[in-house]
Design brief:
With 473 residues, the protein is α+β, with helices and mostly antiparallel strands. It has eleven helices and twelve strands. It has three domains: 166 residues, no CATH class; 104 residues; 164 residues, Heat Shock Protein 90 (2-Layer Sandwich).
C-alpha cells in the first residue's frame, strides 16, 4: 500500500487520528490510574491498621513491619473521634516532598498531579491524605515512595498505547477495505472509461453510463458522460468539416482556372463597339478578379483561417456603391428590393477593401434574399459614420426578421441560417473578416419590422482586446 494512493493515505490518516484520539484519552486515564493507585494504598493501610489494633499488643511489634511492607507505605495515621493516632510507623528514608489530599482534588488538579508524577523520575517521599472506607474514622494519612507509582503509571500507559495501536491498525484495515469497495472501485471505473475514451474518442461505445450509488461519484459520471457526448459530436462535426474543406479546395482550384479564362475574355469586352458593354466591362473584370482572389484564399483552407487583411485607405461610399450595384443586378429578375445608401461621399476608411467588400456583400445579400423570400417588396439600407475611436457601418432591412433558432447560432457555420437551404456561412465569414480587422459584427435588432447589423472597425488596433472582452460579455 503506497502513501501516494487514496487508500494508502486514508489508512495513514486513520491511524494518525485514532492515535491522536487515544493520546487525548491517555491523560485522563493516567490520572484515574494514579488516583486508584493512591486510594488502594489508603485502603491497604487502613486494613493493616485495623488488623494491628485488633491484635494483642504483644504481637503488635512483630506484625507492624510486615503490615507496612504489604501496604507499601512507611507509616499510617488515623483520626478517630477527633484524636490523631500514629497506628503504624517505620523509618522514613527522606523528607516529605509533597502532600496530596485526595478529598480536595478536582479533575484538572488530578490530571496535573498525574503529569507531574509521570515526568518526575526522582524517588521521593509523599504524604497522601484521604477518607477511610466504611466510615472507619475521620481521616487516614500515609507516607510512601513515588517510584512504584511512577512505574505503575508507565506500565499502564504502555499497555494502553499498545492496545490503541492494535485498535487503530485494525480500524484502518477495515476502513480501507470499505473504502476500496465503496469508493475506489467506482472511481477506478470512471478512470478506466476515461482512458478507453481517450484512446478512441470517436467511438460512442466508450461513453460512460452513470450507475454509481454514491451521489458524488454519480455526479462525476454524469458530467463525464455529458463531456464525452459533446466531444464526440464535435469530433464528428470537425471530421465532416475537414472533408467539406477538402472538397471546397478542389472545387476552388478548378473554379479558379475557369475564372482566369473568363477574365481574359472579359478584358476584351472593353474594346466592344457597344458603349453599355464598355461601361460594364470594368465591373465585370473586377467581379471576376475578386472571385479569383476568393478561390485562391480558399485553397489555403487547411490553415482554418482567413489571410490577414491588407490595410489601405479608400473611399467607403464608392465601395458601398459597388456592392449595391452588384446586388441590384443580382435582384433585377425579381425587382422587389430597393437599396438606399447613406454614406458620406468623402468618408475614408482604413481596411482591406476586398475583405470589406465581401463583408458588405454577405450582409446585403442575406437581407435581399430574406425580403425576396417573403414575396413582398422591401428596402435594404446601408449607413456609415465615424468617431474618434472607430468607423461604423450599419446594414438594415425591412425583412421578416430572424427566427429565434437563427439568433442563438447566428455566427456559427451551418447553424445560423434563416433561409431554407442556406449554410449560414455568410455571417460566419463576415464576422471572421471583421474580427481580423480587430472589429466586431453585432446584431442590433431583429423583429417583425426587420433586422439591423452594425459593423465596428477600430481606428487603433489596441482597442481589439477591449472590444472582444465586451463582446464576450
Amino acid at each position: 500500500m503506497r502513501l501516494n494512493t487514496i487508500s494508502g493515505r486514508f489508512a495513514a490518516l486513520t491511524i494518525i487520528f485514532v492515535v491522536l484520539a487515544e493520546i487525548c484519552i491517555l491523560l485522563p486515564s493516567l490520572a484515574s490510574f494514579r488516583l486508584d493507585y493512591l486510594e488502594s494504598r489508603l485502603e491497604r493501610a487502613q486494613i493493616a491498621s485495623l488488623a494491628l489494633l485488633a491484635t494483642d499488643e504483644s504481637l503488635a511489634s512483630d506484625l507492624e513491619s510486615e503490615l507496612l511492607q504489604n501496604a507499601g507505605v512507611f507509616n499510617v495515621v488515623l483520626r478517630r473521634n477527633d484524636i490523631r493516632q500514629l497506628v503504624l510507623s517505620s523509618p522514613i528514608p527522606g523528607p516529605v516532598a509533597a502532600t496530596y489530599d485526595l478529598r480536595e482534588e478536582g479533575v484538572l488538579q488530578t490530571m496535573d498531579d498525574a503529569v507531574r508524577a509521570l515526568l518526575d523520575n526522582r524517588n521521593q517521599v509523599i504524604r497522601v491524605i484521604g477518607s477511610p472506607v466504611n466510615q472507619a474514622g475521620q481521616l487516614i494519612e500515609i507516607t510512601m515512595n513515588t517510584a512504584p507509582l511512577r512505574d505503575g503509571m508507565i506500565e499502564f500507559g504502555m499497555r494502553l498505547l499498545l492496545l490503541s495501536a492494535a485498535f487503530s491498525i485494525m480500524t484502518a484495515l477495515l476502513l480501507n477495505i470499505a473504502v476500496q469497495r465503496l469508493v475506489l472501485v467506482p472511481i477506478r471505473r470512471v478512470i478506466s472509461h476515461m482512458v478507453a475514451y481517450a484512446n478512441e474518442p470517436e467511438d460512442p461505445r466508450h461513453i460512460i453510463t452513470p450507475n454509481a450509488r454514491i451521489d458524488e461519484v454519480r455526479e462525476a459520471e454524469t458530467a463525464l458522460e455529458s463531456m464525452q457526448k459533446t466531444v464526440t459530436s464535435s469530433l464528428k462535426q470537425k471530421e465532416r468539416m475537414a472533408l467539406l474543406g477538402q472538397a471546397v479546395a478542389k472545387i476552388s482550384h478548378d473554379l479558379r482556372n475557369i475564372l482566369t479564362t473568363a477574365q481574359i475574355f472579359a478584358d476584351r469586352l472593353e474594346d466592344s463597339a457597344d458603349p453599355k458593354v464598355r461601361r460594364a466591362a470594368p465591373k465585370l473584370v473586377n467581379s471576376i478578379s475578386r472571385a479569383v482572389t476568393l478561390c485562391e484564399t480558399t485553397l489555403a483552407f487547411g490553415k482554418a483561417e482567413e489571410p490577414p487583411p491588407t490595410m489601405s485607405r479608400f473611399n467607403l461610399a464608392e465601395l458601398g456603391s459597388d456592392v449595391v450595384e452588384a446586388e441590384t443586378l443580382a435582384g433585377e429578375a425579381i425587382g422587389k428590393v430597393d437599396f438606399l445608401t447613406d454614406i458620406p461621399p468623402s468618408m475614408m476608411i482604413r481596411a482591406d477593401r476586398d475583405q470589406l467588400y465581401r463583408v458588405l456583400t454577405n450582409l446585403i445579400r442575406n437581407a435581399r434574399q430574406a425580403i425576396e423570400g417573403t414575396g413582398d417588396t422591401g428596402t435594404v439600407e446601408i449607413g456609415a459614420g465615424e468617431s474618434d475611436s472607430e468607423w461604423w457601418i450599419r446594414v438594415g432591412d425591412t425583412g421578416p426578421g430572424l427566427p429565434e433558432k437563427a439568433k442563438e447560432h447566428l455566427f456559427k457555420p451551418f447553424s445560423g441560417s434563416a433561409r431554407k437551404g442556406g449554410t449560414g456561412l455568410g455571417l460566419t465569414i463576415a464576422a471572421d473578416l471583421v474580427r481580423g480587422h480587430g472589429g466586431l459584427v453585432e446584431l442590433i435588432r431583429s423583429d417583425a419590422d426587420g433586422s439591423e447589423f452594425m459593423i465596428h472597425i477600430p481606428r487603433d488596433v489596441s482597442t481589439v482586446a477591449q472590444r472582444q472582452t465586451t463582446a464576450a460579455r
